[in-house]
């Protein structure tokens, strides 16, 4: 008897009508407008702490070389790493609180530079904590601003988009950070929803009030950082809370009606973290030669010594062309219709070039390890 091959029916992914779009904060929406240790050293010098040479202090801080404030950089990194190990989650894990935690980081950073009987001024501590709670310490990426403007026009119906295929869009931010992220976003002129994961009560704002960001999910509140899937699960729970609490919940649908997409710059924390939580993921990479081309592409990228094909955009406005049917699933290859073929050997360009100065090999290794630990600060 002749055997016939079984017929395999390939099911197309179910197309959901709504989008739950979550974005990273640091290096995705905004970045420090000055190297953080340089900003610390510049402020400390003004407050009477001799942490840089007079010849350095007399110049504009923008012209400082990394060598000129290297001692502050190294001490800041060491202090941050030690405080993170001793008092995790910005001190919340041990009841310290983020304000006290950051105050201790600042004091210990400048302790080696103090004269006998000198103390770190409280005014310096307040200045530095406040600086990174608003736009004073950060620059908003131009493509991020344009993206939120376009998204508002689409979501309010004033300017329909032929490429934006979603009936409803909910926007959130998921960030490995303390509680200052919402205030930073608001200081850039964004209307940010009044709730985060620690507040599960219904919103008190008017239903008609437009929000650029519906809510923010922070590792400080959740107790877990990306790439841990629990922070992504917390975002899904917040979506459910928002839909259930909304007076217009009947028209917003349920969580199951939403495609979940996460966008960020980190391959490990953002891209693969989201995939392992069963989300769709797109990596934002502004460093390549295709920067600003407005396309979604499959990009061959170096990650942990291997070449990986990663769905990538070079600016946020390209997300309007993203199609969930191009996403296969966690651990699978990413297939993009019309994706450009990357050139073999095209590596990921470093975000910044570090001036290694006269550091020894051991010091260089330590610095690189500490800098990796500081990635969550967007430095």
Automatic annotation (TrEMBL):
Q: Where is this region: Disordered?
A: 333-379
The organism's superkingdom is given as Eukaryota
SUPFAM superfamilies for the chain: HAD-like
**What is the name of this protein?**
Haloacid dehalogenase
From the broadest rank down, the organism's phylogenetic lineage runs: Eukaryota, Fungi, Dikarya, Ascomycota, Pezizomycotina
**Residue stretches of biased makeup (Basic and acidic residues):** 345-357
Fetch the Gene3D superfamilies from UniProt: HAD superfamily/HAD-like (3.40.50.1000), Haloacid dehalogenase-like hydrolase (1.10.150.720)
* Originating species: Pseudopithomyces chartarum
- Coiled-coil region(s): none
GO cellular-component term (any): nucleus
């Amino acid at each position: 008897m002749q055997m016939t091959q079984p017929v395999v029916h390939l099911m197309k992914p179910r197309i959901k009508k709504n989008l739950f779009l979550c974005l990273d904060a640091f290096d995705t929406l905004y970045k420090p407008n000055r190297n953080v240790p340089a900003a610390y050293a510049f402020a400390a010098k003004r407050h009477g702490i001799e942490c840089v040479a007079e010849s350095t202090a007399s110049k504009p801080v923008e012209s400082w070389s990394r060598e000129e404030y290297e001692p502050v950089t190294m001490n800041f990194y060491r202090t941050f790493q030690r405080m993170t190990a001793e008092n995790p989650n910005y001190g919340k894990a041990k009841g310290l609180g983020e304000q006290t935690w950051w105050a201790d980081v600042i004091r210990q950073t400048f302790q080696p530079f103090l004269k006998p009987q000198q103390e770190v001024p409280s005014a310096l501590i307040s200045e530095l904590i406040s600086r990174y709670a608003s736009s004073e310490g950060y620059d908003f990426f131009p493509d991020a601003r344009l993206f939120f403007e376009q998204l508002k026009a689409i979501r309010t119906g004033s300017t329909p988009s032929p490429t934006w295929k979603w009936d409803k869009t909910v926007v959130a931010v998921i960030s490995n950070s303390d509680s200052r992220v919402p205030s930073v976003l608001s200081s850039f002129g964004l209307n940010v929803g009044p709730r985060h994961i620690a507040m599960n009560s219904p919103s008190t704002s008017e239903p008609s009030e437009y929000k650029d960001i519906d809510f923010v999910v922070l590792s400080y509140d959740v107790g877990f950082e990306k790439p841990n899937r629990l922070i992504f699960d917390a975002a899904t729970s917040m979506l459910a809370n928002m839909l259930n609490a909304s007076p217009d919940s009947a028209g917003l649908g349920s969580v199951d009606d939403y495609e979940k997409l996460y966008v960020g710059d980190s391959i490990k924390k953002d891209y693969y973290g989201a995939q392992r939580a069963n989300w769709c993921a797109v990596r934002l990479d502004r460093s390549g030669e295709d920067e600003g081309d407005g396309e979604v592409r499959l990009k061959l990228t170096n990650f942990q010594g291997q070449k990986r094909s990663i769905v990538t955009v070079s600016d946020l406005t390209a997300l309007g062309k993203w199609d969930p049917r191009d996403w296969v699933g966690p651990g699978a290859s990413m297939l993009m219709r019309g994706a450009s073929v990357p050139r073999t050997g095209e590596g990921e360009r470093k975000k910044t070039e570090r001036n290694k100065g006269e550091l020894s090999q051991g010091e260089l290794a330590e610095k690189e390890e500490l800098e990796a630990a500081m990635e969550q600060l967007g430095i």
